[in-house]
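Most newcomers find our protein records easier to grasp once they have seen one. To make this concrete, we reproduce a full record directly below:

…
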Amino acid sequence: MVSAEHDKLKRRAARLSVLSNTVLVIAKYIVGVMSGSVSILSEAVHSGIDLIAACIAWYAVRESGKPADDEHPFGHGKIENVAGTVEALLIFVAALYIIAEAGHKLASGNVAIERLGIGTAVMAVSSLANYLVSRHLLTVAAKTDSVALEADALHLRTDVYTSVGVLAGLVAIKLTGVTLLDPIVAIVVALMIIKAAYDLTKNSFFHILDVKLPHDDEAEIISVLEDHASEYLEYHKLRTRKSGHIRHIDMHLVVPKQMTVESGHALSHRISEDISRRLAYSHILVHIEPCLKGCEECGRCAR
């Protein structure tokens, strides 16, 4: 199901994310401590969570590429969904920590901002680095249909937006001298992080519950069935779900009772191949069943 080339692309992208986040966490933490900026420290925490998420994504894409075995007959794809859900929970925790720290700063009024120049530079570099890495991750995720890489990319893309917000806050402080803007910006950053975590939870967790494929995917399946409508009588019990990057599709196909087993088998293969061409990484099961009606009722079985 997973080509060697795609597996290699996913692992390289995951390793790049781990390396990038490691560098940014160290840089943001050092500058945050030096400047006393809670918004920069909040960004360091955010990047720290992104680093953990990147490590989880790297582990998930490595494990999900393993073939099915006796213990996992449907493969290991759902580990990517589990990884995405864990990442979302980590982001929620980080956001609550940031809000708590910012609230303490606002309550005490003890906000001291120094060395804004280097802080502004780090935020600018962070935004650019995260944008480039997240764009690469999204490209690889789209090509390989990787849930874990998509989740990691969304983390970094959120980091881009929050870094820009912190950067804008630091500039505003430098221009106005109002240091309380720092914890206020931190709270805004936290709210944006919570929104990203909510979106990620929807994308990752619900596939663990075996929700059906998106409408566009099911429309492609129905389109293929319509293309072969003259070769069978009807279909029913169409069921779809997704496990990691693997789409699981099964259906019942009613055929004329005179159709041989060989012909029915060939028909199921033609339909499966056409669906696979439109939807990559699809595992398709077609159950062939004979028409139980009398031939005089529809007249099609006699063909």
Notes: Residues 215-298 form a domain with the Alpha-Beta Plaits fold (CATH 3.30.70.1350). The radius of gyration is 26 Å. The chain has two domains: 4-208, 215-298.
